[in-house]
Amino acid sequence: MAEHGTRMEEDRPALSHYVMPLTWPPRRRCASILRVTAFGPLLYNSVSHKVEPLPGGDVGLYVCGVTPYDTSHLGHAFTYVVFDVLVRYLRFLGRRVTYVQNVTDIDDDVLLRANKTGRDWKELGDEEYAGFRQQMSRLGNLDPDVAPRATDHMPEIQQIVERLIDKDVAYENKHSVYFDVKKDPKFGRLFNHSYDSMLQIANERGNFPADPLKRDPLDFVLWQGQKDGEPAWDSPWGPGRPGWHIECSAMAMKYLGETITIHGGGEDLVFPHHDAEIAQSENYTGVLFVHHWLHAAMVYCGEHKMSKSLGNMVFVRELIDDSSPDAVRLHLLSHHYREPWDQPLDAGVPTVELAAKLSRSLADAGDPSDAELERYRGAFLDAMANDLDTPAAIAEIERLSGSEEPAARRAAKALGQRVLGLTFAA
Ligand SMILES: [Zn+2]
What is the structure's pLDDT at 1? Predict the structure, then answer.
């Protein structure tokens, strides 16, 4: 299982060192703003490098999903638990959220694994995706409202590619189509680094700079002509399949409109994936693609980012089996979403005792009244409004759970369940 971008095994420094120079946490700095926004969310925006209020109204959230070809590790779980908590939190505030999380069901990784194991690529993808969803739901994650598959969106993808060619920002060469990065002066504004840095990172993440069909080594593929033995779909440029970046542009805009409120994913998707999405979408529509970009930090295992080829993976399923869903969730959320962290092999989760303690205090607590919830939720919601400070939110749940006041414990349970997705099951 790879979230796109996690397939490449790069070592430290993480992208955070390139794209997120502002230090976390911004607690003190935001305290006065929090009062003004009355618990409204302030979130770090990767494109402005600032903590900013989220626009009002309904929220469209698109999170880049998995490429299903292998088992999920803790890095995947961290990303999807973070966005699950964001959805829960916004809904708790009364915001209407449409959560779209795609499935990259046709991709080099899926085809390679299918070839290697002698399996049908579609069967392999379906099976691994079902396993992923099962593990995410065991962990307490809500299902996305829409889980679109790339292979179901060929007309939408081709329509965008056609218009990009018409607008002369993309070109066809021998049945493949590429985005011409030199035609977009703003290309790479999310990553915000030099051409050489962009090329270096892109090459580490699946770019083929020596592709003779390209005009520029940094140009990226929108449609790739069929190779021997690969599945293909008809197109105006001949049989082939889409590039990865264009799939997300097509699915995001189809379900959430031309401008979406929040686009998220793992931090290793900033470049080239998300910059490519911006370039494609904005050249297609002429309007802003995303208000707020949110990226979850990488999980390391020792020196290196958790990855398949190094074998330094900690599997979600094993961690849950050895502890409990609440213990794993508390462990993940005890790290701020923008803070890279280490999960040593065989270390287990250090939150087993905390999960047991909260469960002892809260398992039998009933529902709070609206007045009780309002009375006790302030510090918790302050923490969440402060760029999703889940470590502080957990500390507040722990504090309330130890209260002599039954109403405080009732409030703690409701907040923990509804916003953090904990169960407090005995
Ligand atoms: Zn994506």
Answer: 53
Residue 241 Cα to ligand 1 midpoint, Å, equals 16
Distance (angstroms) between ligand 1 centre and the Cα of 151 equals 14
**pLDDT at res. 71:** 80
What single-letter amino acid sits at 128?
A: E
Q: Is 168 exposed, middle or buried (0-12, 13-18, 19+ CB in 10 A)?
A: exposed
pLDDT per residue as tens digits for the range 252-284: 999 999 999 999 999 999 999 999 999 999 999
Measured in Å, residue 312 CA sits from the centre of ligand 1 at 24
Q: Are residues 251 and 385 in the same domain?
A: no
Q: What is the CATH number of the domain that holds 257?
A: 3.40.50.620
| pLDDT score recorded for residue 79 | 97
| 21 and 146 part of one domain | yes
Give the distance (Å) from ligand 1 centre to CA of residue 351: 32
Find the domain containing 260 and state its range.
2-305
- Measured in Å, residue 31 CA sits from the centre of ligand 1 at 33
| In a shared domain, residues 270 and 399 | no
318: which residues sit within 8 A by CB, 6+ positions away?
A: none
| Each residue's pLDDT tens digit, 69-82 | 888 889 999 999 99
Ligand 1 centroid vs 253 CA: distance in angstroms?
Answer: 12
Q: Which residues of the chain have pLDDT under 50?
A: 2-37
Stated pTM of the model: 0.91
CB atoms within 10 A of CB 110: 22
Which amino acid belongs to residue 394? I
Distance 421 CA to ligand 1 centre (A): 25
249/362 same-domain check: no
